[in-house]
Amino acid sequence: MTYRSILFAASSLLLASFRPISDDPAYKTRLEEWHQKRVASLKREDGWLNLAGLFWLKEGENTVGSAADNKVVFPGGTAHLGTFQLKNGVVQFTPTSDAVVTIDGQKATGTQIIFTADTKPNTVQHESLKWVVIKRGDQYGIRLRDLESEQLKNFHGIERFAVNEKYRVTARLEKPSTPKTVAITNILGQTSDQPLAGTLVFELEGKTYRLDATGEEKLFVVFGDETNKKDTYGAGRFLYADQPSADGTTVLDFNQAINPPCAFTPYATCPLPPKQNKLAVRIPAGEKRFGDH
């Protein structure tokens, strides 16, 4: 997943965020309301719980369907559904004559382009299966969703640490004097340089810590801490914060630390915390490890 897609996918979550006030008696209630919106976002049709596959395409023709003789084997649906053709960064799809497939809600007939680098990818659907093409580095893949996913049906929420206002801290954003980037590596081993919004500097238990942040409308932080060894997702968590106010500070509320999509599914391509964002301290706040991921 790209940084842009992360920020877009989390838009409803960000709209539900808030800048906490230390003497706000309704803080826990507001935090619970925020968390329920977070859970709802995971359960949406475009959430992370219904992902059913991620299939990397090879240049040329890639047959698809539920039969084992296809190059792309879907977990259900028609045995021979059609063919993806990847050529020079453009993906086309041709359904078989007996397959009922829609592209952006319209019945697919003949060969149609479903992905180019310059346009929004088309959404293709067959029965309960729905997919789009994604690009990661120089790779092109089919991100598959199952709208009748068993994981979605069996989802009963995310375990969290008890709310602790100790982990809601004021941070100063140190902005670079000249434009800089931060190198972010994803779980595929691909590294990209993201514009650095600044470094968040804060104190916890008398010690000073620093976290590099990206993002424009909201600050976005991928961080790790000592809880990753056992209690939280091993590859780190995400945290969003408001842009700083006039005095250059913002609030980092680790009670709003969330699992990345990869904590819920093996079919996401999450960014990993850069070395400088791995904190040598336990942050027992926010979401805990989910399931076996």
Structural class, by secondary structure, is: mainly beta
Whole-number radius of gyration?
21 Å
> Can you count the beta strands?
19
Give average pLDDT, whole number.
92
Q: Main sheet: which strands, in order across?
A: 1-11-10-9-6-7
> Strand share of the residues?
25-35%
Strand count, sense and barrel status of the largest sheet are: 6 strands, antiparallel
- N-to-C order of helices and strands: HHHEEEEEEEEEEEHEEEEEEEE
Which word captures the global form? elongated
Number of domains: 2
State the helicity in percent bands.
Answer: 10-25%
- Count helical runs: 4
Q: What is the CA-CA span between the terminal residues?
A: 17 Å
**Poorly predicted runs of 5 or more residues:** 7-22
Description of the molecule:
With 293 residues, this protein is mainly β. The protein contains four helices and 19 strands. It folds into two domains: 3-47 and 156-277, no CATH class; 51-148, Tumour Suppressor Smad4, CATH 2.60.200.20. The chain is 11% helix and 34% strand. The strands form five sheets. It has a six-stranded antiparallel beta sheet with strand order 1-11-10-9-6-7, with no helix packed on it. Strands 3-2-4-5-8 form a five-stranded mixed beta sheet, with no helix packed on it. A four-stranded antiparallel beta sheet has the order 16-15-12-19, with no helix packed on it. The two termini are 17 Å apart. This is DUF1684 domain-containing protein. InterPro entries: DUF1684.
